[in-house]
Amino acid sequence: ILHGNDNSTLEEAGSDERTPLAAAALNGHLSTVYLLLDSGATVDSRDSAEDTPLALAAANGHIGIAKRLVLSGANIESKSYDGATPVIIAASNGHTEMVTALRGLGAKMDAADDNGET
Fold it and tell me: Residues 61, 98: contact at Cβ < 8 Å?
């Protein structure tokens, strides 16, 4: 992916519209996340559910990845198709440590999704 002069493959999405960065964030591959970000991958790409790499990391409790994404400029208040922010996604998946980490990174604790749930 990273050896050519054309970085377009960094943004090439699969059938679920996930970029390599999103797939790495989803699956907990921290070193790959670092490599892709350092190579210029778009930090706030979106998949078919409007999830960003940060939302995918939050959903799966990958705190180190979430921190790296936020420190690389990810929008900590980005919303998925249903209006859920990464902190709402983390909470709904039972990842209390992720919620705490996102709060420490500046996430709003009073955000609500499209159904008014916080």
Answer: yes
Residue 111 lies in a domain: no
Find how far residue 50's CA is from the centre of its chain: 11
Number of domains forming the structure of the chain: 1
CATH code at 38?
1.25.40.20
User: Do the domain assignments include residue 115?
Assistant: no
Six-digit token pair at 14? Answer: 């699969």
CA distances from 100 to 4, 43, 45, 63, 104 (A): 39, 21, 24, 10, 6
Using one digit for the tens of pLDDT, what is the confidence trace for 34-90? Answer: 999 999 999 999 998 899 999 999 999 999 999 999 999 999 999 999 999 999 999
